[in-house]
Amino acid sequence: MSALTMTGVSRSFPPTGSGQAATRAVDDVTLHVPHGSLTAVLGPSGCGKTTLLRLIAGFLVPDSGTIAFDDRVVAGAGRPVPPQERRVGYVPQEGALFPHLDVAANIGFGLPRGERSGARIDEMLDLVELPRGFRGRAPHELSGGQQQRVALARALAPRPTVVLLDEPFSSLDASLRESTGRAVARALRAARATGLLVTHDQSEALSLSDQVAVLREGRLIQAGSPADVYLAPHDPELARFVGGATSLPGRAGEGRAATCALGAVTLTHPASADDLLLVIRPDQVVLDEAGVEAHVDEVSFYGHDAAIRLTVGGAALVARVTGPSAPAAGQTVRVGVRGAVHAYPAPVRD
């Protein structure tokens, strides 16, 4: 049984001006979140991620569909269960700690009065990897990452059914974002909590979660393990969004063979059409003396690696190579493809 099940959930908002249609923010979403897992809801801004969280929390009511925690329906079957009765923990952007309360009081805010200054506070501080000496600190004395950990401790303290995290690391710098994300994921797993993390950062979704659910314009495009979503994306647009990819036209051959501007390639599965759209990841494009000729248009050097923008036979693509091996812009190189590539039927042109 899943800790959280959404079945056919939709939610629209009325038009904001005359002549405009209603906005369908969440469109027929069905999603299962297993007990003790962390699911990342991934998508660009405006795709319906936060609306989905607000529906789960009970801040909004769905127009159709049901939401259930275990076997308890909380929305969609008669009167919806109010937010305070759903046992949901919520971690908003930037933590939203109470500025007039110290760390201990913030963590204990949702606990019964007898537990607000006891062992549960120390237990939560240990869980989110903060020193117990932080109990008396004010929020403004904490770094952004420390504030987010306190916010998670506050959400976990009442032992919620599900913890919802709404872009909790978006205001942190890159290095702090990564370390805080790992610490939060460890804390959720140590508490055996079920978590739903909303993010627009595909690296964050892939590296932290057990399951990735991708939203696009309110619809659930694909849900699966990070490896499944990355290696077998539902469509070319998802492949470009998750991990970055170049789409090249190709032609199917025998079995799993195909040809494109990069020459002969191997497909992950036999082609389902003669005309194909091949999705090639930057790390699959390699410098190869036996490959096809390419012009280096631009090089972005990151130290440990570099992104090279190339033109091959009129087609643009990106390669990612180790920093020291990167050619210079303007050079002519030879490139090939490493590993099998994913193929989709080419779109039909009118």
Description:
This protein has 350 residues and is of the alpha+beta class. It has helices at 49-57, 103-107, 119-127, 144-156, 174-190, 202-208, 226-231, 236-241; strands spanning 2-13, 23-34, 38-42, 64-69, 72-75, 88-91, 162-166, 195-199, 211-216, 219-224, 246-252, 257-260, 263-266, 275-280, 285-301, 305-312, 315-322, 332-337, 342-345. It folds into 2 domains: 2-15 and 23-239, P-loop containing nucleotide triphosphate hydrolases (Rossmann fold, 3-Layer(aba) Sandwich), CATH 3.40.50.300; 245-345, Nucleic acid-binding proteins (OB fold (Dihydrolipoamide Acetyltransferase, E2P)), CATH 2.40.50.140. The chain has 8 helices and 19 strands. Helix 4 (144-156) packs parallel to helix 5. The longest helix has 17 residues, at 174-190.
Based on DSSP secondary structure assignment, what is the total number of beta strands? 19
Rounded average pLDDT: 90
Instruction: Return the CATH architecture of the largest domain.
Output: 3-Layer(aba) Sandwich
| Shape type | globular
- Assembly category: single chain
> Roughly how much helix do the residues carry, as a percent range?
10-25%
Instruction: List unreliable stretches of 5+ residues.
Output: none
| Structural domains: how many | 2
- Rg (C-alpha, Å): 24 Å
Report the β-strand fraction as a percent range: 35-45%
Structural class: alpha+beta
Write down the CATH class of the largest domain.
Alpha Beta
CATH fold-level name of the largest domain: Rossmann fold
Q: What is the succession of H and E elements?
A: EEEHEEEHHHEHEHEEHHEEEEEEEEE
Distance between the termini: 46 Å
CATH superfamily of the largest domain: P-loop containing nucleotide triphosphate hydrolases
Main β-sheet, spatial strand arrangement: 6-7-8-3-9-10
Number of helices: 8
